[in-house]
Write a structure and sequence with these properties.
With 362 residues, the protein is mainly alpha-helical. The chain has twelve helices and four strands.
Length: 362
């Protein structure tokens, strides 16, 4: 509701200053970023939870109604027909004797009327919660946790106060758990940092350290995935560097393309470094025996790749007739590119197998 008041204020300013873009942006931000992305998700456990009392459910429904009603009225000047249709379908309107016949006849929300909902402390607290949720989602994405819920530890460097009447970080844990798809969110003080599991993926900010336990994650499988991603990114870097190193590149390529390629190369280097850092983090969390087993698995996979490409090269080579044969030119035209590609893949696989056999695991 406090964010709704902010939206109302922005809409009023936009109309006063004849800036419809301000009105549109305020409505878009409220509907998409505040209401749909956050509040609707936060309120689901309250509405559908069996252990939640009736008063809490009624309060949640009332807040939903107020937000949708006022949100549609705010948006009506920009989208008259859609908002009219939706507003007419709001539950409870037919039972309200004071209800207007049309959204066009209802009062447009004003900051004076919505000021009672303004609460800077609540907004500040929710801003912290949403930032923490973003961090948790980022950590989950890094380890490919899509549906599985695990506990999350938040270590705060100091006890934050969001103002009088505002919720504390502990009060916000259920909200953070819901939006961050966590089974539980645990607040840990600096002196109790030893209670956080050792195998955790962490992200540190100026105020918090967020830790995601990896006890349910297959680190070996994850490290293989990240290594493949990093190798693929490195290959893209080599291809782009090769393209930029062509003799005609400096003289014939337009400057805007050069700038674009340079920015693209820098971005790819950052991405490759990030992937390698994550890979090293996962490997460091594994035991020596696990790393050795993973290394042996990689060697076995590389040997299979060498055999596959060796067989493919042999098959393609055997399919080429002698040069004296009438069909030689036709066959070589068709098979030649495939053979060249297979030979290149075989060389790369041989080189990868050699590197793995020469590497030591520590």
């Amino acid at each position: 509701l406090s964010k709704l008041h902010t939206c109302v204020s922005e809409c009023e300013r936009g109309f006063v200053e004849w800036e419809l873009a301000t009105v549109a942006e305020a409505c878009k931000k409220f509907w998409l970023e505040e209401f749909c992305a956050n509040y609707l998700e936060m309120v689901k456990p309250v509405l559908y939870g069996e252990s939640i009392d009736a008063k809490a459910k009624a309060a949640a429904r009332r807040t939903l109604y107020l937000c949708i009603d006022a949100g549609l009225r705010l948006l009506h000047p920009l989208m008259p027909f859609v908002t009219e249709e939706l507003w007419q379908r709001l539950p409870g309107r037919n039972h309200d004797p004071n209800a207007c016949e049309s959204i066009m006849l209802s009062a447009y929300p004003t900051p004076k009327a919505s000021k009672r909902w303004a609460n800077a402390g609540v907004e500040k607290a929710m801003e912290h919660a949403v930032n923490l949720v973003g961090t948790i989602r980022s950590l989950r994405a890094q380890v490919n946790l899509t549906k599985q819920k695990v506990e999350v530890y938040i270590q705060r460097k100091e006890v934050a106060s969001f103002g009088e009447g505002a919720p504390t970080l502990a009060d916000l844990c259920p909200v953070i758990a819901t939006l961050g798809s966590a089974s539980e969110v645990k607040i840990v003080e600096a002196k109790d940092s030893n209670t956080i599991p050792q195998q955790c993926l962490t992200e540190v900010s100026s105020q918090y350290t967020v830790a995601l336990p990896l006890h349910t994650v297959d680190l070996g499988k994850l490290s293989v995935t990240y290594e493949k991603k990093a190798d693929k990114k490195l290959a893209e870097i080599k291809d782009l560097e090769g393209s930029m190193a062509r003799p005609t590149y400096a003289s014939k390529t337009p400057q805007n393309i050069k700038d674009k390629d340079q920015a693209n190369l820098a971005q790819k280097n950052v991405e490759e470094k990030t992937l390698r850092t994550a890979l090293n983090t996962f490997l460091s969390m594994m035991t020596l025996e696990e790393r050795k087993a993973l290394h042996e698995s990689k060697i076995k996979t590389a040997e299979q790749a060498v055999k596959k490409y060796t067989d493919e090269v042999k098959k393609l080579t055997d399919s080429i007739p002698p040069k004296e044969d009438k069909t030689y030119k036709k066959v070589i035209h068709k098979v030649g590119p495939k053979l060249k590609k297979a030979e290149s893949q075989l060389r790369n696989a041989d080189a990868a197998l050699k590197r793995l056999k020469e590497a030591t695991v520590s």
